[in-house]
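Hey, sorry to bother you again with one of my protein questions. A protein chain has come my way and I'm curious about its shape. It would help a lot if you went through both lines with me. I owe you a coffee for this, so here goes:
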Amino acid sequence: MIEVKNLTKKYGTHIAVDNLSFRVERGMVYGFLGPNGAGKSTTMNMMTGYIAATGGTVCINGYDILKEPKKAKKCIGYLPEQPPVYQDMTVWEYLDFAAQLKQVKKPERRKQLETIIEQMQVFEVKDQLIKNLSKGYKQRVGFAQAIIGYPEVIILDEPMTGLDPKQIIEIRTLIKELSRTHTIILSSHILSEVSAVCDYILIISKGKLVASDTPEGLMTLMKGGRQLELCVCGTEDKLCEILNNIREIDHFVIENGKKEEECNAIIRVGAESDIRKELFYRLASADMPIMRLGISEKSLEDVFLELTGDGMETEVMEDGSSL
């Protein structure tokens, strides 16, 4: 469907995109994930033909975006980070104008616009000026122009930026609905957006592709092991002796507990190992009651940070958590 080969973009001495290569298969939702400044928007702008690449090629449905731009662009619907809407037009006027630009034939135009307006749930505001719409409605109008002409590929650059939690959920639902009939590529630096709607994730950092897999595959790839957090009543020496005799343990660190009679341990084991039962019996035999035992595994956030090597901006999500 889309093939990107050795794509590079330089601004003077700065390399924004560095020899990027990947394939996009038909009928899936792909996510570009990376910190701000990683090269996501630059890559998308080159894929859509908005800016020229310094090197490499982008083929959409077999058409080179530079050599056959009209044929390639006909396959693409694009929603930039800021929806390209005309504030002093009504929703209907703007979408009709976009349909003319996309050369939708006049006999088909009205029916197609009515269908898209209904699908994007902007019917009730179709006669309002765009400048009077909320951010969420403006985003929906941007989505509507992107799918005019029913392109096979829809490219969305940071589609949920600036939306409130309710609007984010609505846009996620919209993307899932569109994915039934379109191949979708979306970029984001917010992990929950990508993992909630994407079938496949490409993580880029400093212009380079550092990983590509399903969300589950990325978790498996980076799941170097489990970490157990243990608190027991007993001495550090006795606990050290017990842990040294459990073969599945790769590494452990013991430290003083909050109470004088307690000690804590951080234990690392292989991803497939579960030592809890053996640990329980050994500690019970040594008369060392377990006060606390928990397992922590790498989350997708941990994978992201480890692969990019960068901290992310703190983003408050709809569930109250932050990245």
Remarks:
- Residues 311-323 have pLDDT under 50 and may be disordered.
- The CA atoms of residues 145 and 309 lie 37 Å apart.
- The longest strand covers residues 14-24.
- The chain is about 35% helix and 30% strand.
